Amino acid sequence: MPIHDQSYRHYPGTREAQGRAWLIIASAGIRSMIGKRKFLALLLLAWLPFLIEAIRFYFAANFPQVSMLAATRETYREFFDYQAAFVFFITIWAGAGLIANDKRANALQIYLSKPLTRTEYIAGKLSVLVVFLLLVTWVPAMLLLLLHMLFQGNFDFIRANLLLFPAITLFSFLYVLLASFTMLALSSLSNSSRYVAILYAGIIFFTDSVYSVLYAVTGNSSFSWISLGGNLRQVGNIIFRMKPLYPDTPWQVSLLMVVAMIAVSTFILERRVRGVEVVS
Amino acid sequence: MTDTASTGPVVDLKGVTVVYGKTPALVDVTAAFPRGAVGLLGPNGAGKSTLLKALLAFIVPTEGTMRVLDLNVTGSALDIRRRIGYLPETDAHIPGMNAVSFVAYCGQLAGLPAADAMQRAHEVLYYVGLGEARYRNVETYSTGMKQRIKLAQALVHDPDLLFLDEPTNGMDPKGRDEMLELIHDLAHGKGVNLILSSHLLPDVEFTCDHVVVLDKGRVVAQGTIDALKGPRGRVFEMRIKGDREAFTHVLQAAGLDCHATEEDVMRVFLPDGSGPQALFALAAREHVQVRHLRPSVPTLEDVFARAVGEQ
User: Fold this and answer.
1) Are A4 and A103 a contacting pair, CB within 8 Å?
2) Three-state DSSP class for A64?
């Protein structure tokens, strides 16, 4: 007589409510990335600019000899430029394989045969990238603001620059959503994460290069809307109430290009994330 | 979670048509899949996988209605997926996970709480014979092991209905027998309804009581296997010396169902009222020697050959 019955048993327990699948997908994706030591090292390295700025704020607040190092509104805008390289590498590392690896392993059939919608699947995958990117943009920027306040010992700077809270949040989310949607859409186009990474890098550098050439030829910045990074930088300056980076391109056009990129990515995801791929 | 209240068919299709571009994959399919184990039989390209994918709402039919567990597929796809398990035909897994993590993850996606999903994952992996290998990465598994783990992820949330698409694909004979034993146990020992899609007649004959036969996107036969095999005449195994192909044509021209098997044996269906004398007469007329003739038992292969031939 067996000590323990290892045959199939019916499940007598309860089921969770529908609509939580995106959270399960996101948690699994985040756990999977955190388990990679090199990726963790990259995340830690991405906090180096924060550390440098924090030390700078400390000295500026406590040593009048170096008060010229004090932070301004522009400092917070520039912080995002320092983080750009880390955002680029984290997007590629965490994002290139998000859907591509699932397509290679035919996992979409498994996912979509469970009680979850395509929207939940996409939201779960998107959340993986969004979490890591916010961790190196919004979180350190807000912490810097907090530290600035703490080191100064008063609210003077905050009162004079109240817009920094919404500006940091708005720009972070715009930046993160643009990078995440673009990368996720590219990931859905291929079975190879390597190819997706090259494609993403290619789009970033190619659009920047095309703009640079046109700027060199024409002498004005009216073609800055071609550059993906340029549009983001232009919008960032406007959000932080700074002078436009490309005076010949209206900021509305740059914002439109950012929104259009997100919309196109959403469209691609809607078309590509399916349980069945029909080859005509 | 076993639905014992309802006695109606688990799947009910009415006039279902699926078109890929201009190519019809399913044409006016009307069929009722009763409770228990039902085989979905047909040659490659008959539309079996398309039918399963339409039931999962991966594909939207151009015409017709589909009901699964008394729920309309069009409006209740998510509710249906909570209660069904799907074993896909192609190799499929979540990359980067070991077996127990993969199956537990699938359990969670199907609605089980995390702790229950992990416990069920262990139980189900032992049941399918992967208990000792459950901490290995799925990508290192052999073909047979991958088939078992696909079954495990389909079972982890205790579905009311299983869709098994070619479950013995790529398995060695021993693995295939074990898989068929599992499927037989699920259907007849554990009360799990299942639809087994296969082109392998012995698999369907061993595990299923009912069968729906598809050919070129149409239903060509459906019913219990016993009824379909039932007496419509008599079956004879015949071996001749002579041109077998030519003699097969002669028999078919005489209105007799006939098909060749893998060995040099022909299976001939004689309708009620005629006997083996008709075969000897035809052989004599064609100057063919009958080397072997004996009555046989109808098999599912006969059912399939007749159904496809009639179509």
Assistant:
1) no
2) helix
Q: Which residues 52-111 of B have a C-beta within 8 angstroms of A?
A: 53, 56, 58-59, 78-79, 81-82, 84-86, 88, 90-96, 105-106, 108-111
Question: For residue range A6-62, what is the model confidence (pLDDT) as tens digits?
Answer: 678 889 888 888 889 999 999 999 999 999 999 999 999 999 999 999 999 999 988
Do B98 and B153 touch, CB atoms closer than 8 A?
Answer: no
Count how many Cα atoms sit within 13 Å of the Cα of residue A157 in the half-sphere of its side chain.
22
Largest CA distance in chain B: 75
φ/ψ (deg, to 5) at A236: -60, -45
The pLDDT value recorded for residue A16 is 87
Q: What is the ipTM of this complex?
A: 0.90
B86·A109 Cβ contact <8 A: yes
CA distance B10 to chain A (A): 17
Q: Are B123 and B190 in contact (CB under 8 A)?
A: no
Residues of chain B below pLDDT 70: 1-6, 229-233, 262-263, 272, 297-300, 303, 306, 309-311
Fold of the B11-222 domain:
Rossmann fold (3.40.50)
Reported pTM: 0.86
DSSP one-letter string for B217-261? TEEEEEEEHHHHHS-SEEEEEEEEES-HHHHHHHHHHTT-EEEE-
Mutate to test the interface with A, among B48, B108, B162, B165 (most CBs of A within 10 A): B108
Distance from CA of A125 to the nearest CA of B (A): 13
Q: Give the nearest partner residue to A105 out of B21, B58, B92, using CB atoms.
A: B92
Where in chain B is CATH 3.30.70.80?
Answer: 230-310
Work out whether strand B161-165 and strand B84-87 pair parallel, antiparallel, or are unpaired. parallel
Q: Which residues, 6 or more positions from A190, have their beta carbon under 8 angstroms from its beta carbon? A: A100, A103, A196, A199
B127 and A6 within 8 Å at the Cβ level: the answer is yes
* Cross-chain residue pair B94–A102, CB shorter than 8 Å: yes
- Specify which residues B229 forms β-bridges with: none
Strand-pairing partners, residue B270, are: B234
The alpha-carbon gap from B80 to the nearest alpha carbon of chain A, in Å, equals: 8
C-alpha dihedral sign at A114, A119, A122, A123:
negative
In chain B, residues under CATH classification 3.40.50.300 are: 11-222
Q: For the domain bounded by B230-310, which CATH number is listed?
A: 3.30.70.80
For residue B189, what is the nearest residue in chain A, using CA coordinates?
A8
Q: How is chain A split into domains, by residue range? A: 21-272
Residue A8 is nearest to which of B93, B94, B190, comparing CB atoms?
Answer: B190
